[in-house]
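User: Fold this; tokens only.

Assistant: Input:
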Amino acid sequence: MLLESCTITHVLECIADPTKIRVVASFSNHVDEVFPYLNAILKNIAYVPGAKTITMKKDHRLITIYPHMATIAKADDEEDAKATLCWLQDLINDTWEKRDSITPSYEVHQLLRPLDVYSLLPKKSCKLCGEATCLAFAVGLLQGSRTLEQCPLLAEAEYSAGRERLSELLGATGMLKL
């Protein structure tokens, strides 16, 4: 086990959304040894080896992992933050246990941005997905509130290349993929 425990040290107001909180949590052990393995298996993360950081999204939450701590922005409340930290601890420990079967990746990765996703969508703003624009749909995909299946145009042959690339980038569910 690489990470024995996570302890919330600070609960603060979320700058991005005043209805949410952000937390700072300390780790019982340094975890940066697992970063190249997480980088190899997770989709849509920002990995900066020189800075020893990984930033990822889990649903609407933004998580940044440092060697000895993590921050979570946009947590619903303290219980949500604790549940997210448990998920993160399991992810780190499960990945560490499987490291012998994972080829580590030291490539710098960046998080997908809404315009990256938008560029692969039909760009018709037809509203068939329930959003006013394709850009709003792109944001929903990144936040996990929308799925690729909710855009009927992506099922058409004309847009299959965009759908395939989005599926690859976002994972089959449009969320973080292990």
